[in-house]
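hiii, so i know i said id send this last week but things got crazy w the move. better late than never?? heres the sequnce for the chain we talked about at the cafe, plus the structure i predicted for it. fair warning i was half asleep when i ran it
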Amino acid sequence: MFDRLQILEINADNFTKGGMSQVIWRLMENLSNEVEFSFLTDRDDVSEEILDKLESNGARRICLKKNSFNKYINYFIKYHQVIGVFSREKFDFIHINADNMIGVFIYILACKKCHCKIIVQGHTTRFPTDNKFIVKTKSAICSMLYKCLGKNIDVKLAVSTPAAHFFYGEKIKDVHILFNGLDSEKYIYNEEKRIALREKMNVGNKIVVGHIGRFAYAKNHGFLLQVFKDAISKSRMMELWLLGNGPLENEIRLQVQRMGLESNVKFLGTSQDIQMYLSAFDVFLFPSRYEGFPLVLVEAQTSDLPVLMSDTITDEAIFSQKVSRLPLNAPLTEWSDALLKSVRSKEREDMTEKINNAGLNIHEISKRYIKILQENL
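okay and structure toks below
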């Protein structure tokens, strides 16, 4: 019996919620026989269900003390807590999941001090703001940090080519692009689930426009509502279903009220059965400002849903001919016309072969992940 690889995951402790955590969760589920995953966390709101799933996959949590000082003091305290963990425990790799260098440099410094092997995986393509001064300042800081610390990274990963360029700069020859994959069986179209949910929701013959994502800046919910409102002015038989939660949810609820859309928009929270909702949707609306490599877009295509999305998202995530793209600065009426045109396609097929051909099967991605690590042991 061989020893499993020991990997500590950082910034993946939201578990089944959020794209970054879902990526690692799916790797854990597929590699539990070969890797013992540990998760560094200061969260105390983890459900018993999640804890049971971690245990069943042979994974564990390593908990830091949660502090309530200001964020700069917290950086210092967390740095010393992390050094304590790295000194006590033995890991083959520390896998740091990151949006940018600012949020993770203390972990790289701690790894360097404790002589740990480092994996860094970039998950996004820009900063969550339109403020040009903030973007310029943060870009300069990230560039400086990467110049100082980049040589200490043993394995460089990114979820897409644009994400690699954002995190590592123009020179990405030594960066492994590891797409976000899934198990297609969990997301293929299910007619029975579609009928049951639509009957439960009393939809009738209405067109259901769906969106799944956190209520956050990147997802662009405000623009999504504008597109939907313009669409229902042309076709009243429509509903918008919003799945997710997040910091901007109350703001979006108020916007729905101001726009007079309360009877057309449903806030449905989160669900463990995404397949059911994707099957019930008629079209998926996804006008994100930016994405690293959106899992939910892959899930929607796997359900053979027509998708209307922004052109900010990498081509690497597209494998269905039912995907339409528009720039965010296109006229609103162009977006609403495209949305209505998308739902003309009613037939749904099994997309398993296409997702496999696109290299997005989680089983194959998991094998590649292991191969990359073994080559760098």
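btw The two ends are 19 Å apart (CA to CA). thought thatd interest u
miss u guys!!
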